[in-house]
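Section 5.1 Outputs to date
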Amino acid sequence: MTDSKINSTVLGYPRIGPRRELKHALEAYWDGRSTLPDLLLTGEQLRVATWQRLAALGITALPSNTFSFYDHVLDTAILLDAVPDRYRALGGPHDTHFAAPYYAMAPYFAMARGTDDLAPLRMTKWFDTNYHYIVPEIGPATAFKLADDKPIAEVREARALGLRTRPVLLGPVTFLLLSQPTPGSPARFTPLSRLEDVLDVYADLLAALRAEGVDWVQLDEPALVADRTGDELAAVRLAYHRLGGLADRPRLLVASYFGELADALPALAETPIEGIAIDLVRGRLPDAAALAGKTVLAGVVSGRDVWRTDLRRTLGLLRRVRDVAGEVVVSTSCPLLHVPYDLAAETDLEPALRDRLAFAEEKVAEVVELADELARTTGTAGPGTITAEPSRVASEPGSGRPGRSSRSPYPIRAAAQSQHLRLPALPVTTIGSFPQTGELRAARAAVAGGRMDQEQYERRIEAEIDRVIRLQERLGLDVLVHGEPERNDMVQYFAEQLDGFATPRYGWVQSYGSRCTRPPILHDTVSRPAPITVRWARYAQSLTSKPVKGMLTGPVTIVAWSFVRDDLPLRDVVGQVAEAIREEVTDLEAAGISVIQVDEPALRELMPLRRSAQAEYLDWAVGAYRHATSGAGDRTQIHTHLCYSETAEVLAAIDALDADVTTVESARSGARLIAEPAIKEFGRGLGPGVYDIHSPRVPGTAEVADLLATALRVLPADRVWVNPDCGLKTRTYPQIEAALSNVVSAARRTRAALG
């Protein structure tokens, strides 16, 4: 933003680096292969490259403080000194991110990842995205203060380059709504009750930023696009009357995204803030009265997909915004954290598909082009210089809407499976993947580069499967997995073998911390030309007399973790994928696989943020899953898995999936799901996770036994399974051998206690 007006901006930008430079730097630092100064230098280089590139592309208002070494919500907790006491002894302000003091890296990464002695904070999904944030703990005694100067330091860092920036902060209301009470807090305590104390710190920070010459500050409040209570809307008014009424502050821009503000918009509009960012990709243009006199950041270029913007239609929308706003600024609909960097690197994509795509770099160019065109035109009509977008031809979709299918009632299936599988009480299994070693990644790269033939590669995969099966037998697991050594990613692997998908080579997107994924692009009709997993499942089962799970990704998750065509209703696209997975389930069963896991970790993630749209979504999403799995016979045990989302919110839907066994994340969240009253009524097998795999720490046998005891106080023993929170691909073999050994020991100890 300039002193007088703004023209074009983005709400945020990817931060992992075009070639995942941050990932590599973090993992080298964690593994002891590099030093803290090395890590800090990589962060500085990424920030500088982002600002300079955005400026070169023509963005007139550069955001800062959007970079993070792990997670921006965790950064905010550090900023406010909301650090639980158990982490404080690990370090102090002597470690630095910048030249100015910044909070210690040791407690920062301990809160994110844990240590040998400390579990990390809980992690869950960022609204309806596949990004995960660290959940802060706030209690009645949390002593807030301005403990970090990261936003100020980045302003200075950019200024040294001759660039002025707009610091981006997580808004105080969203920060508190996303937090959870500190363990031991009074039953009725909510973090939002600490709002006024948090506002004191924000006021100090705003004054400090103004003293640095900052003109505008962006406060992100995406929580306001979900349903909010009257008390929560009152908190919005309190927050922004208080901050807007400060005598010495920058101008304030409150940014919403992932939907429309609805009731929160008039609450914001009546406060003295100068600007509001609205998502016009997922929301409608509000009435003129709500925007009068405000600077409006019009989020017209989608930050959630990879499709080109219809520039002519969007220019017309921007003219309508200009008619009702005090000032209009062209922007992305949300931060570009959720899309890859640059389409120019994707030379392998078909030209016809490339013409339809825009990654972060191209979306910035669209923002600038729209802003320039809007500045050249007046009125609400006129062709301008933007040409019409090429028409998009939709492929024949087929019906894509499978009818609701069902299997025999659960008691009948459970009896058949018990007789067939003959499992012990508290059966121990894992979620599916085993560590992806450097050798496996090198083998896949060698095949792709023509340095290894397919026969050599398949022998390498067989050897890894043999290793995984022998390890599980030695440790004493009851239901085994083949370890998925042939898979790069649980969605990408299927996308590469289904028609209708394309996979970018460099299309990395941050999921959490150093974890990145390459979402496939679902651009055409989906079908399964050949079996996908049967060859490896059959081989694994031939190595052991114990049951080996066939491992599939569910239709909702495949779609949720892909960039999906926007010319067909989402439920129809999911229906096409469900039919392909149904065919795979049938072939696995015919190959002698008696346990088949169809994972749906994104079931909650894809759910609309507004309650009014959730029932319809859950109806067709559950229907798609049941269609995909209902072809299996009674004695074939169907498992599903959900992780790192608010599982309790969709417990009824999980029950409606009708899977025989559901495994869920539980260890990292402190068994929160088990405390839900409705869990007592869950009538099928349930595996509350007892090992947090997103931390390098190894849980002890007693710790696992305590988690099992918690589950058994609520659930009958004949329906409890023992498993990690999620797949093991991000861990090392020494870590998982130690952890799984303790998990098996705890299960055996608990069985003995049960008699």
